[in-house]
Design brief:
By secondary structure, this protein is α/β, with parallel strands linked by helices.
């Protein structure tokens, strides 16, 4: 057994200071310690997949990241682990608890199957791993091996933690939120029939035409990134492939890692509905430099135009409820441009929804760069700002 302080003292020496994840009783000493320590940041995630995406954004933003969660949530993390961190070659340290460990202490029945398949799942995902270092003298060598793996393979490394690997660490202070909760009635401002709205292409042209100095663009998976690439490929643009719904938590991690830059996330209605909880993380952290754009065509355009639930949802009201600082909704292009130009990068988080028509150019291609090349170029661009 070790104390939380033992592990985190070594973490600092290796540069790990950005933490995110979800709770587990095995992790309680770690999460409590990080919450109370002025030397670390802990970002609450609404689910394990969001935590992976937040850490991925922070990593490309220059922060060495650690994700912590229970193995029951490994299923929630499979998509971003397989199509974000693996595809874009983004390393991070992950601590997964082993509830329901075969031959281990008795546990709740819902952990039986996941306990049995945790290690096979980690290996199937091609993650490096070893058991958590549960003796003080084991910590430094284990972090060396983890860091060497991440540096060499550009993939996450996992410590699998057993029960009682870490001594208890109770919270010494009561966490009290001092954030202002906004309670503003919101009404959507849409005038046009769906087939008379502007196109995604029109919207992306406007986005690329504004002053983008010290600005990073994160485009959601599907045709948004493909169109952005074809219109004008730029090193400050990140084209997400797969990991649907992860653009916003990815952008959040980046916004927190680089508060000196403007971060613009270009989202889609289907993707946002898949991981709506990430808006809660944005509203809690309140990064002033984050602009969340929703291009809402009410369909899954990349898969044949099947309808989403968007027509029945007021995203603007959701953004207000999730504590965004500013919310704008429109289907008028010049209003969209005006709202964009109003974003200064110091009064967010801002939510900007533009209702658009479905469809895309018939000859739409795909990015000519491999995903890991996009990530490397993006990271180099950030480092040189």
């Amino acid at each position: 057994m070790i104390f939380a302080l033992d592990f985190f003292n070594e973490c600092q020496k290796f540069g790990f200071k950005f933490f995110t994840g979800t709770p587990c009783s095995y992790l309680k000493p770690f999460i409590n310690f990080v919450i109370e320590s002025p030397d670390f940041n802990f970002i609450d995630a609404t689910n394990e997949g969001d935590a992976i995406a937040i850490a991925a954004g922070a990593t490309l933003g220059g922060k060495k990241s650690v994700v912590m969660f229970q193995n029951s949530g490994l299923g929630n993390a499979v998509n971003p682990l397989s199509s974000l961190t693996h595809t874009f070659k983004i390393p991070m340290l992950i601590i997964i608890t082993h509830r329901g460990e075969p031959g281990g202490p008795p546990d709740e029945p819902q952990h039986d199957l996941m306990g049995e398949i945790t290690i096979p799942m980690v290996e199937t995902l091609k993650l490096g791993w070893e058991h958590f270092p549960n003796q003080p003298e084991l910590i430094k060598p284990a972090l060396h091996r983890a860091s060497d793996f991440m540096d060499k393979e550009n993939r996450p490394f996992v410590f699998i933690m057993k029960k009682n690997d870490v001594a208890p660490y109770p919270l010494k202070s009561r966490i009290v939120s001092n954030q202002k909760i906004l309670n503003v009635t919101h009404e959507d401002n849409f005038l046009r029939p769906a087939n008379e709205r502007f196109s995604r292409t029109d919207a992306l042209k406007v986005i690329q035409s504004i002053n983008l100095e010290k600005t990073l663009l994160v485009a959601t998976t599907g045709k948004t990134g493909r169109e952005l690439f074809e219109m004008d490929d730029r090193p400050n643009q990140f084209y997400m492939v797969g990991s649907m719904g992860c653009a916003l938590p990815f952008g959040l991690g980046m916004a927190l890692a680089r508060p000196d830059l403007k971060i613009i996330v270009i989202d889609g209605d289907g993707a946002l509905l898949m991981r709506t909880g990430s808006m809660g993380s944005v509203g809690h952290q309140r990064p002033t430099n984050l602009l969340h754009i929703l291009l809402d065509n009410e369909v899954h355009d990349s898969t044949g135009g099947q309808k989403t639930l968007s027509p029945y949802i007021s995203f603007g009201t959701l953004a207000k409820g999730f504590n965004y600082n500013k919310v704008f909704t429109t289907d008028i292009l010049y209003q969209f441009e005006n709202y964009l130009n109003e974003f200064t990068g110091n009064e967010g988080p801002t939510f900007l929804q533009l209702k658009i028509n479905k469809g895309s150019p018939s000859d739409l291609g795909r990015p000519g760069l491999l995903p890991y090349q996009v990530a490397q170029r993006f990271q180099n661009y950030i480092l040189n700002l």
